[in-house]
Amino acid sequence: MTERLQKIIAAAGVASRRAAERLIREGRVSVNGVVVTELGVKADAVADVIRVNGARITVDTSKVYLVLHKPAGYLTAVSDSRGRKTVADLIPGFTERLVPVGRLDYASEGLLIMTNDGYLSYRLQHPKFAVPKTYRVKVRGSIDTASLSAIRKGMSLSDGFFIPREVDLEKTNKKSTWLRITIEEGRYRIVRRYLEAQGFPVVRLIRVAEGNVELGDLKPGEYRFMSSKELKHLGGAGR
């Protein structure tokens, strides 16, 4: 399967995607002996010989780790009996059976990891590892100092007490407020339920980070390969 050259270089752990783009523009990357300077060039990580600064790079294709920007209006599933769009529709061409890690509900958007590594999926979802997840959340209403303090202190819900790890106010006006909230558990729709219980219904919810993996400048529907540095930090391959 072909991918953009900068994505392959990032997946090999040689450089970040932006740094890989710079390497390409500087003429330091070749494919099958031909120097590449255009960013739109695609290659096959297995079939093609890709070199950076003269050294051949390789990508472990036995396990696949994608960072996807899930748009709103897609199910976090690989299929749907009712014919609704799923995140699997956003990654055509993969022969591996990639599954989403954790939940990101239909109306929510942002970072979603997809992989065929069962161990990494287990680590990211098991409560004992407490992998932090960070969201930007738009809620109805203006949040003052007292309300922000209450949100930070936590409260009892129908399925037990919940307290966020961190809550920051980004901006607020009379009609709405943007919060940045980090949690360490994966209870069903926990951020939405919690903020609604605090009196602030969620209008928009975007996951921007999971562990050390950040959404960055990925546009809705786009994906990238997870870097080797990100993967090692999360405890996946190479453990």
In short:
By secondary structure, this protein is of the alpha+beta class. 20% of the residues lie in helices and 31% in strands.
Descriptors:
alpha+beta; 20% helix; elongated; 17 strands; four-stranded antiparallel beta sheet; Alpha-Beta Plaits; Structural Genomics Hypothetical 15.5 Kd Protein In mrcA-pckA Intergenic Region, Chain A; 239 residues; nine-stranded mixed beta sheet; 3 domains
Characterize the structure shown.
This protein has 239 residues and is α+β, with helices and mostly antiparallel strands. The protein has three domains: 2-56, Structural Genomics Hypothetical 15.5 Kd Protein In mrcA-pckA Intergenic Region, Chain A (Roll), CATH 3.10.290; 65-128 and 216-234, 2-Layer Sandwich (Alpha-Beta Plaits); 132-210, Alpha-Beta Plaits, CATH 3.30.70.1560. The protein contains six helices and 17 strands. It has helices at 5-11, 17-25, 118-125, 145-153, 190-197, 228-234, and strands spanning 2-4, 29-31, 34-36, 42-44, 50-52, 55-56, 65-70, 99-100, 109-115, 133-140, 155-157, 160-162, 166-172, 176-183, 202-210, 213-214, 223-225. The strands form four sheets. Strands 7, 8, 9, 10, 13, 14, 15, 16 and 17 form a nine-stranded mixed sheet that branches. Strands 3-2-5-6 form a four-stranded antiparallel sheet. The protein has a two-stranded antiparallel sheet with strand order 1-4. Helix 1 crosses helix 2 (17-25). The two termini are 27 Å apart.
